[in-house]
Amino acid sequence: MLFTETKKYLLLLFITLNLIGCEDQSASTPPPSEIHVDTLTTNYINLRLSNELPGRVTAFKEAEVRPQITGIVKERLYEEGSEVKEGDTLFLIDPTTYQSTVNSAKAELKRAQSSERNAQKEMVRYAALLKKKLSSQQLYDQAEATYLEAKAETEISQAALDYANIELSYTKITAPISGQAGFSNVSEGSLLTSGQADYLTTIIQTNNVYVDMQQSAVDLYKLKQQFKDSSAEKASVPVTLTLEDGTSYQHQGRLAFVDTQVEGSTGTVTLRAVFPNPDKSLLAGMYVRAHIAYPEARDYLIVPQTAVVRSQSGAPSVYIVNEENKVEKKSLTLSNEVGSNWVVEEGLEVGDRIITNNLTKVKNGLTVVVDSNKSTDQVVAENTTNTLTTDTEK
Questions:
Q1: What is the average pLDDT score of the chain?
Q2: For the chain, what is the domain count?
Q3: 238 and 159 co-located in one domain
Q4: What CATH number corresponds to the domain at position 130?
Q5: Sheet strands (E) in 143-286
């Protein structure tokens, strides 16, 4: 009996101590502090955007110089890296054999011409005798046939001489286009063969250059819609370049060509722009970033990149403060990158107050204190640059 009373007493004491401890703990817990945030009020910004694409510089014209006859290189007549004009002699092949062929063809032509003249005189003589009825028609016909055969032989000999002269002219390997000649892949004494795969040198014309870009078919359709919806009668398509070191190329180009087929393996379409290159600063094979400007400026809503939060799947959203100073989360559809900001296609309205700091502490329905508020105009003035680009992977 005494043991039971003692047990009850200890249980009562334990419960009392626990209640006292809970009261002390609750009394020591401070009330939740207010979260202070800064906001950005959205409004329309007038911008002329551009679509950024990776590109490679290619020569406006490029020719690989190859021999058209077989022979030994006698001399190289150009300086590597120099500017050459169309028709300038670059290499000289030993012409001895081909000159001999020309001489032989000339001799054959002279003999054929002599035979032709004799046959013609014979035909004229028989024609006179036939007219006087001193010769038969058969003899005249034979004389005429001999003359025609001799004339044909003359034409054959003339063709052989022309061909020999052509081959002789090929001993002078000339520049097919004007431009800058490259390294020579042969030296004096090298044996060249007609139709060989290896080229002797290259000539590149770079006063103007091409920039070839790859654009997804879907994004190309969107870009075309921008120009289709343009209010301009003839929307221009200017293109600018950013070099590998981040500097802007000083000359503006233009979009010259859009391929008519989509590459099956990548789903992309090739676009080609033409750029002036007077100082030869753009070299064939260089990697650049091309910016295709939209046809006109339009009004857009923008949001700072630092204010955008993303879900595990990468979907973008922002937190805004409503009229009751409570937090709301809005999903966004983004398009263009403007400096350190995104252009918003869907999800925001003019006048929304976007939270720009303490993003890890805010959540839906939470009441916050707004310390400061900026407008979109101020953010654009502080953070945007002259280069407007598009990130197509949103």
A1: 84
A2: 3
A3: no
A4: 1.10.287.470
A5: 172-174, 179-181, 191-192, 201-216, 238-242, 253-258, 268-276
pTM passes above 0.85: no
Please, are residues 52 and 335 in contact by the beta-carbon 8 Å criterion?
no
Using CA atoms, how far residue 171 sits from 68, 74, 182, 183, in Å, is 8, 9, 20, 20
Residues of the chain with pLDDT > 90, as a percent, come to 44
Q: Verify that 243 and 312 share a domain, yes or no.
A: no
> Residue 5 domain-assigned?
no
185 close to 192: Cβ distance less than 8 angstroms: no
What is the domain extent for residue 377?
Answer: 35-47+298-390
Output the pLDDT for position 343: 87
Rg value, the chain, Cα:
43
Neighbours of 308 (CB within 10 A): 18
- CA–chain centroid gap for 228, Å, is 22
Least confident of 105-109, 117-121, 214-218, 376-380: 376-380
96-131 and 137-169 helices, crossing angle to 10°: 160
Instruction: Spell out the residues 6+ positions from residue 28 whose beta carbon is closer than 8 angstroms to its own.
Output: none
Tokens of 359: 């993003």
Angle at 358 between CA 353 and CA 363, to 5 degrees: 70
In a domain, residue 71? The reply is: no
Residue 353 lies in a domain: yes
Beta-ladder partners of 201: 65
Identify the pLDDT of residue 390: 43
Residue 279, helix vs strand vs coil: coil
C-alpha 209/C-alpha 203 separation (Å) is 14
